[in-house]
Design brief:
Layout lengths: L1 E6 L26 E2 L8 E7 L2 H8 L7 E8 L4 H9 L12 E5 L20 E8 L6 H8 L4 E9 L2 E2 L8 E4 L9 E2 L3
Parallel strand pairs: 3-7
Antiparallel strand pairs: 1-3, 1-9, 2-3, 4-6, 4-7, 5-6, 7-8, 9-10
Length: about 190
């Protein structure tokens, strides 16, 4: 079984309660599934869950270099130099990131409102970036954009490998009928 879930802002990527935040248990009443990777509590978007340990390992282990694409709303207007830095790889102190694919986009397509909304400051513009990385280390995209001089205000993962959000609203999920073919039809939406 493979589930695609649009994790809302503020939800913890675990099934056990922490007493402060909603968890996956509040959205998915499917026994025996586990996340293949994680998203920070303050990040949104695609989370894959499965009951297949081998598939979970293949999706989440850095050795397999599954590409992950994010939409990042950043503070300011990134310069060509900043985009080049992100593209070449960024020295974050504890590691140097692999090169990333990065481009400025008008706004994330099909974007839903976030609750709570991102803070708005009239005198500081924001921009949207689409970044694709193959590592996915802890808070990597946020650390990369901050190091390039454009802190992330909102972060949405829209794709992992060939799987994507495909119009799922926050809190919705769907089951992939054939996990070996990510483009195959889906069923059981909520």
């Amino acid at each position: 079984m493979l589930i695609l879930f649009n994790k809302p802002y503020g939800v913890i990527c675990q099934f056990s309660s922490d007493g402060m935040h909603p968890t996956l248990k509040d959205y998915l009443a499917i026994p025996g599934i586990y996340p293949a990777g994680r998203l920070d509590t303050d990040s949104e978007g695609l989370l894959i869950l499965t009951d297949d340990g081998k598939l979970q390992h293949k999706i989440s282990h850095p050795r397999h270099k599954e590409a992950k694409t994010y939409w990042a709303q950043v503070e300011g207007n990134p310069t060509p130099e900043a985009l080049g830095k992100l593209h070449r790889g960024v020295d974050l102190g504890d590691f140097v990131t692999q090169p990333a694919s990065v481009k400025i986009i008008p706004e994330a397509p099909g974007l839903w409102p976030r609750t709570p909304p991102v803070r708005f400051r009239k005198e500081i513009p924001t921009s949207w970036l689409e970044l694709t990385i193959s590592e996915g280390k802890n808070r990597q995209v946020r650390r990369m954009t901050a190091k390039a001089g454009f802190p992330t205000l909102r972060l949405i993962r829209c794709r992992i490998g060939e799987w994507n959000l495909g119009g799922l609203a926050p809190g919705q999920w769907r089951e992939v009928l054939n996990p070996d073919n990510p483009l195959d039809g889906c069923s059981k939406s909520k």
